[in-house]
């Protein structure tokens, strides 16, 4: 993670302020909005002064020409407007990075141990949006490396708004889930990547799976998904066929302001027990179902799903890649937040059309889980050959994969039928 890779430095007291440029971003689909340049661009920086390091995001709303107008540079306004409208992303980034280095951050009420967002300009495309943050003035010295013209630097003030950056990575407090064992991030040995935020790791010779809070593309809701997954992992502790947590991973708060004070720990990830058999998706793709006691999977997965529903919870993303196999070949349900999103091909009719899964009623969510369970049975049966039990799998799947909630067989009835057929097999 970028925040965790920043080297710790010894900063002398009363040191000269310096800026470290971090990530630049801009609204990518601005052309679809009919604007010739991004209506929003942001530059993340770390501002070092004395013994402190401050995380800051400088955000510009609207065109650069408006910004130049406000810093008394009318003579360059038209020229820069034309250049920005024709500029590449690299050129826009370099220009904006040059600008943010001219701001005087020392006079601003920066927020400690988090990310301060300094907003310049207005979003003229959305009149309904209220301007966030508290208003302040920031001093700016426009120098030649920003304007690319000769002349003396001009000092002026810009109106800005300051708030806690809502797009920052939110790391949960270590105290939120006290029942979980804590592992230090620095003591984990990194293995292969599973996704951009899920990795194989080891500690003391034991292999685990680490799911991190931060990721390549982070959305503010991602942290709430992590919290919900921890809540469900805590609830389903020791329950068979449902993923089990080994603990939480903690590290120093990447946004900690003081470099000399006591280290503040935050939660940076979940440590899950490893299941070495891979995913059911891999088994199906490689046609290796005959290598396992696959006859047990239907009841194991269904029983795990029934545990969710009895607890008034749902999974909402049941699919082969969210089923893993333990060392004995038993099926284990993973990704148990229930709010992490859904996969269109594994959604019941009528469910995919809704934009937000959180809008579904409890009845709809259970219907979707059971429908996906039916499809899962059908996928297993399609590779299991012939026989009475396979026939039962197909029959049960057909009664679950219906287009109407009212005609769908209940999960308990389906499990009773499967258990009866399993005993006769």
From TrEMBL:
<keyword id="KW-0067">ATP-binding</keyword>
<dbReference type="GO" id="GO:0004674">
    <property type="term" value="F:protein serine/threonine kinase activity"/>
</dbReference>
<keyword id="KW-0547">Nucleotide-binding</keyword>
<dbReference type="InterPro" id="IPR011009">
    <property type="entry name" value="Kinase-like_dom_sf"/>
</dbReference>
<feature type="domain" description="Protein kinase">
    <location>
        <begin position="184"/>
        <end position="425"/>
    </location>
</feature>
<feature type="coiled-coil region">
    <location>
        <begin position="64"/>
        <end position="93"/>
    </location>
</feature>
<dbReference type="Pfam" id="PF00069">
    <property type="entry name" value="Pkinase"/>
</dbReference>
<keyword id="KW-0808">Transferase</keyword>
<protein>
    <recommendedName>
        <fullName>Protein kinase domain-containing protein</fullName>
    </recommendedName>
</protein>
<dbReference type="InterPro" id="IPR051681">
    <property type="entry name" value="Ser/Thr_Kinases-Pseudokinases"/>
</dbReference>
<keyword id="KW-0175">Coiled coil</keyword>
<keyword id="KW-0418">Kinase</keyword>
<dbReference type="InterPro" id="IPR000719">
    <property type="entry name" value="Prot_kinase_dom"/>
</dbReference>
<dbReference type="GO" id="GO:0005524">
    <property type="term" value="F:ATP binding"/>
</dbReference>
């Amino acid at each position: 993670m970028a925040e965790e890779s920043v080297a710790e430095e010894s900063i002398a007291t009363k040191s000269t302020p310096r800026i470290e440029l971090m990530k630049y971003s801009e609204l990518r689909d601005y052309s679809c909005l009919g604007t010739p340049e991004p209506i929003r661009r942001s530059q993340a920086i770390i501002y070092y002064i004395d013994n402190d390091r401050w995380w800051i995001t400088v955000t510009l709303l609207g065109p650069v020409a408006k910004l130049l107008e406000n810093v008394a540079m009318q003579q360059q306004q038209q020229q820069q407007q034309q250049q920005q409208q024709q500029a590449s992303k690299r050129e826009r980034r370099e220009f904006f990075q040059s600008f943010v280095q001219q701001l005087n951050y020392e006079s601003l009420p920066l927020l400690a141990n988090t990310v301060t967002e300094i907003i310049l300009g207005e979003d003229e495309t959305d009149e309904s949006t209220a301007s966030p943050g508290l208003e302040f003035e920031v001093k700016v010295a426009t120098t030649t490396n920003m304007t690319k013209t000769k002349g003396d630097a001009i000092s002026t003030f810009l109106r800005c708004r300051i708030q806690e950056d809502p797009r920052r990575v939110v790391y949960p407090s270590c105290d939120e889930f006290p029942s979980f064992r804590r592992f230090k991030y620095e003591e984990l040995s990194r293995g292969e990547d599973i996704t951009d935020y899920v990795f194989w790791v080891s500690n003391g010779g034991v292999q685990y799976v680490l799911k991190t809070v931060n990721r390549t593309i982070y959305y503010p809701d991602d942290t709430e998904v992590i919290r919900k997954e921890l809540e469900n992992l805590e609830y389903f502790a020791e329950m068979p066929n449902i993923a089990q947590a080994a603990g939480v991973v903690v590290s120093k708060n990447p946004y900690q302001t003081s470099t000399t004070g006591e280290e503040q720990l935050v939660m940076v990830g979940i440590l899950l027990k490893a299941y070495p058999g891979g995913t059911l998706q891999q088994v199906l793709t490689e046609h290796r179902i005959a290598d396992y006691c696959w006859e047990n999977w239907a009841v194991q997965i269904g029983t795990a799903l029934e545990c969710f529903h009895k607890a008034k919870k749902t999974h909402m993303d049941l699919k082969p890649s969210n089923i893993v196999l333990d060392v004995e070949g038993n099926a284990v349900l993973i990704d148990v937040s229930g709010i992490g999103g859904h996969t269109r091909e594994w959604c019941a009719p009528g469910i995919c059309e809704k934009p937000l899964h959180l809008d579904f009623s409890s009845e709809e969510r259970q219907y979707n889980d059971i429908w996906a369970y039916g499809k899962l049975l059908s996928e297993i049966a399609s590779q299991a050959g012939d026989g009475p039990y396979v026939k039962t799998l197909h029959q049960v799947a057909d009664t679950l994969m219906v287009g109407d909630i009212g005609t769908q067989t209940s999960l308990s009835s389906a499990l009773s039928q499967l258990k009866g057929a399993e005993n006769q097999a």
